[in-house]
Each structure stands twice: as structure tokens, then as C-alpha cells.
Amino acid sequence: MTIQDLKAIYIASLGSLYDASEAGAIYELCTEYVLGTSRSAPHTVLTEDRQAELQRLLSGLQQGIPVQYLTGRAYFWDAFYKVSPATLIPRPETEELLFWLQQDSAALPRRDIRVLDIGTGTGCIAITAKKILPEAEVYALDISGEALEIAAHNANAQGVDVRFLQDDILQPAPHAGQQKWDIIISNPPYITTAEKAAMHRNVLEHEPHRALFVTNDDPQQFYRAIAAYAQQHLHDRGTVYLELNADFGQQTAALFRDHGFTTLLRKDMQGKDRMLKAWRS
User: Fold this and answer.
1) C-alpha torsion 92→94→96→98, nearest 10
2) Residue 221 vs residues 50, 190, 202: alpha-carbon distances, Å
3) CATH 3.40.50.150 fits 85-279, yes or no
4) How many whole angstroms separate alpha carbon 89 and alpha carbon 121?
5) What residue ranges do the domains of the chain occupy?
6) In a 3-state reduction of DSSP, which class is residue 59?
7) Using an 8 Å Cβ cutoff, are 71 and 85 in contact?
8) Strand pairing partners for 165?
9) What is the pLDDT along the chain (281 residues), one digit of tens a residue?
10) Which of these, 241, 243, 229, lies nearest to 274 by C-alpha position?
């Protein structure tokens, strides 16, 4: 069987879950993982072992399991990250937030910068922030010990020095009050439970709900906690960078202004209010 033959089987088998274009893209991720390259010719004949591994992946995909969890990795910024059901799968929207930090980085001092990533998951934000600001002291916080283990693995695998903290931003431990930061960055839970009906089953059934969802009654819960924390623990000229629920962009900006910050919203590639920068002038 050739690569092209099995691609047709993938597209047909996954038709109830994905359109042909998305199923084809998923197949490319699977072949890159199994073959170790993305440049195999369509008529390359697959060995029995590789066919079996690709069939195993297909079986998992038919159950709605995300390809990233089946392969145990996801690409973000410039590297593959280890992922598991304990962590969200890194997404391109979060790269856009880090591009914003990168654009602003030229105006920052090169030393004595302290950065906190709240809700680190795989560690992709903290690790990339350290790459953007190599002289900075970067910390990453998460409530999940399992997520922190994966984040630490990713930092070690990429040779990046990030320090990890287990804590709950909704109820931070007393020692957190002693910390001061120049940059706080976060992609907190922001999807309301009312939005579940429109979401793909591979997200609903497999990604960690604690890292995704907030209640309909209090969709600003995490942003309010971050704003209150930043009000107390951000240096005078510090900056907060946040990924947002586009439906609540204006409300989140107003919340931070109520806490004494100047705010700027930025749209994502789809033209939605997806990012917020807040700072003290």
C-alpha cells in the first residue's frame, strides 16, 4: 500500500468527523510522525510496520481522539511540544499573542525582566516567552501537577530555563503576594458552557475541561482574578498580555480599566477581538 492509497482510506474513514481537507491535513501529520519526514512521495510504498502504526492512529481518530494526543506531540512556534489529555493542545491563536510580545520586546530592557505565565499547560507560552526574552526570568504557574510535569519536560527538551509554580490563580497561596512581575501573560479558561454545543467532539470529549470552560454566570472569572492579581503584583510599568473569548473582548477591556489599567484590544487572523494588552501608564 502506498502513502496515497492510505490517504484515501483516511479521508473516507474520517468523513463523519472532518471534511476532506482537514482529514487530509491530519493524515499528513500522521505520516510525518510515523515516517519522520513530511517529504515522502505519494507513491512511496509503506512497510507493514508503518501501515500498522498508521492504522492504529486511524482507529484512534475514528473515536474522536485528537491527532496530537495520539502522537503525543503538537507543533508550536518553532518546536514540537509533548502533550497529553492533562494539557490543552497549543493553538495558532496563542502564537499571535506571543507575536505581540515579540513586537513589543524591542522596547524592553534586556535584563532584570520577570515574566509570569498563568495557566501554563504544556508550557508553550512560558517557553516561547523565554526564547523571545532570553535574559528574562520566566515563571510558569498551573493548578495541575500533571500539566506542570509535562511543561517541565518540554522546557528541558528545548533547553529553556523556566521555573514552575503549582498554584491556583483564583485563590493564590500567600507566598504569591511576595512576587512582582514586569510581564504577566495568560491564555486562561474562557469558553462558556453555552458554547459547548458548537464545539467539535474531539475537544469536548478529550481536552481538559478545567482548562477550557467557565460558567455562563461568570465568564470573566479568571480575567477578574488576573486583573486583581496584576493590580497588586505588576511593576509600575508592567504589562499584561491575554488571550480572550472574542465575545467578551470589550467587557474584559472594561474590567481591566476598572482596575486602573490602560487597555488595547487586538484582532486575530479571523478579525475577532482575541487579544488584550493592559498596562499602567
Assistant:
1) -130
2) 47, 9, 25
3) yes
4) 9
5) 3-63, 85-279
6) helix
7) no
8) 141
9) 999 999 999 999 999 999 999 999 999 999 999 999 877 788 889 999 999 999 999 999 999 999 999 999 999 999 999 999 999 999 999 999 999 999 999 888 767 899 999 999 999 999 999 999 999 999 999 999 999 999 999 999 999 999 999 999 999 887 655 689 999 999 998 888 878 777 777 787 778 887 878 888 888 999 999 999 999 999 988 999 999 999 999 999 999 999 999 999 999 988 999 999 999 87
10) 243
Q: Which of 37, 17, 19 is nearest to 28 (CA)?
A: 37
CB 82 within 8 A of CB 72: yes
CB-based contacts of 30, cutoff 8 Å, min separation 6: 10, 54, 57, 58, 67, 70, 71
DSSP sequence for 132-187: HSTTSEEEEEES-HHHHHHHHHHHHHTT---EEEE--TTS--GGGGG--EEEEEE-
Return d(Cα 22, Cα 190) in angstroms, integer.
Answer: 25
